[in-house]
Amino acid sequence: MGFISTIFGKNKELTSKQQWEQLNKKYAGNPIERIRKKLALVASIDHAYKEFGADNHKYQLNSPLSIEKVNQLQAKAGCEFPEDYIAFVTQIGNGGTGSYGGAGPYYGLYAFDDAIDRNGIHNCALPCLLKPKMDIDEWKALCHVPEDCSDEDFDIICDRVHQGTLYLGTCGCEYDLLLVINGKYKGHILYTSDWVNSETPYTFSYETSFTQWYERWLDEVILGYNTSWFGHRMGGNEETLLHFAQNNEDITKKISAINSLTKLPELSNSSLYFLEQQLQTKNIELYKVSLNVLATYFKEQALPYIQQALVAPFDEKTDIVIPIIYFKYRDQCSLFKDNFFPILKATDNEDTLRFIGYLLAELNAVLVEDFQPFFTHTSVEIVRSAIYAASHDINLKDKTLAFYELVISENEEISLGAIQALSSSNYIDSELLPYLQQAWEMYPKEKNPYIRNNISSYIAKVYQNNEIDVTRW
Predict the structure, then answer these.
(1) pLDDT > 70? residue 44
(2) Pick from 61, 58, 57: which is nearest to 98 by CA?
C-alpha cells in the first residue's frame, strides 16, 4: 500500500475523522472506491497493528481476481454470488498473505477461490436454511447429531447447516464468519460458534450486504471505536444509537442499542441523561444494561444507584450491581466492603456469591466462616464458588477442618474443589490424611484423573521428603 502517502500526504494536518469525512463526501456514490481509500487510511492509522488480528493480515490484500476467473467459479458453483462481494474481490483484493487471509475483521478475509469449496461447492447453489429469529426447536431439529451418527450422516448434517453460505474467515477459536450467498438473506454475514448440537449456533449481522459490513469495520477502526467482537453490536455513532433507543418500543432492540454504546470511546451528557432515565424502568434487563453503560462512562454518577441497590431489602438489582462493582470499581471496592456481608447472608445467587468472593479476596477480607454455610447448598455451582472463595482466607491453615467432608463428596467437582482449596494452605494435619486417602479410593483415574493428580501434587508439596507414598494407598 505504497499509495497511502500520495492519498493522505497533503492532509497530514487533518485528523483521522476529518479525512474520513472527506472520503465519505468525495466518494458518496462509490462504495468500492470509498472502501479502497478507507483501507489505506486504516493502514496508516493502525501502523502498529494494535487492532485484533491486524498483526496477522497487516491490512494487506492480494491482487484482485479477474472477472473471467470469478465467472468460472460461479459457473462451477451453479449460482451467482452477491454482487458487491464479487465487486470487492475483482476490484479491491482477494485474500492475503496472512495465515488466515487478507485485510478484514478479526483475522482477515479468506480468498474467494480458496473458500468456495471449503464447505462443499455443491452446497453453494442451495438456499441458506437459517434466519435471524429461528426458533430454537427448529434449529435443534436442523443440526441435531444422534449419538449413533455415522460419518456419512454427520456430513449430511454439516452440509445442511452450511448450504447457501461461503466461508469468509475466522474470529478465533471455533468462531467463524460466513457470507449468505443464497436464499432470503443473501448478502448477510453470519457469526457462527459451535455449529452442531448448539443452542447458540449463529448471529446474523445488522448489515444486509458484504460491503456495508466491511466498510463499517473500516469506519469503526478509523473512529477509534472498540472493535472487539465487531459486528455483534449495532452500527452507528452516539447520536444514531440514542435516537434509535429513544424511539423504539421494542424492548429487545432498545437494549441492543444501549449496549452498542459501549463500543464508543466516550459518551456525552445526552447519553448520561438518557441512561439515568432508563434506571427508573421496571424492566430488569433494561435496568441492567443501562446501569452497566452508565458505570462504564460515568462512574461517579452511577455510584448512588449502585449504593441504593446494596441496601436491604436485596433484590435482582443487588445481583446486578455486584459484578459491576468488580469490573468497574475494583480499585474502590473498599467503599462497599461493609455491604457485602449482609448480602452474603441473604443471597442465593451464584454470580453474586462468586463476585463477592472475588471482591473480598481483593481486600484480604475473606473468612471461611462467611462462606461455609454454602458448603451444603443443593447447587453444585454455589458450593464450588463458596469453596473457591473460602480458600482465600489468609488464615486458611487454621480452618482446614471445614473442608474435610467436602473432600469425600460424592460429587467429583466438589471433591476436586475442596482438595484444590486445601492444597493452597500448604498444610496437612493427621486428621486430613484419611479423607485424602478415601477420596483417592473413591476416584480412580479412569473416573476422574484430576482428583488423584491433585492429591499427588498436594502430598508431594507438603511432604517433600516422600514420607507418604500415595501409590500404596
Answers:
(1) yes
(2) 57
* Interacting residues of 372 by C-beta distance below 8 A, sequence separation 6+: 386, 390, 402
Scan for cell 443501562, then name that residue: 290
- How many residues appear in the chain? 473
pLDDT band at 2 (very low <50, low <70, confident <90, very high): very low
Residue with more model confidence, 143 or 109: 109
C-alpha to C-alpha distance for 427 and 52, rounded to whole angstroms = 44
Residue 83 C-alpha cell reads as 454482487
The rounded percent of the chain whose pLDDT value lies above 90 is 82
The dihedral built from the CA positions of residue 266, 270, 274 and 277, taken in this order, carries a sign that is positive
User: What local confidence, expressed as pLDDT, does residue 473 receive?
Assistant: 85
In which band, very low, low, confident or very high, does the pLDDT at 179 lie, cut at 50, 70 and 90? very high
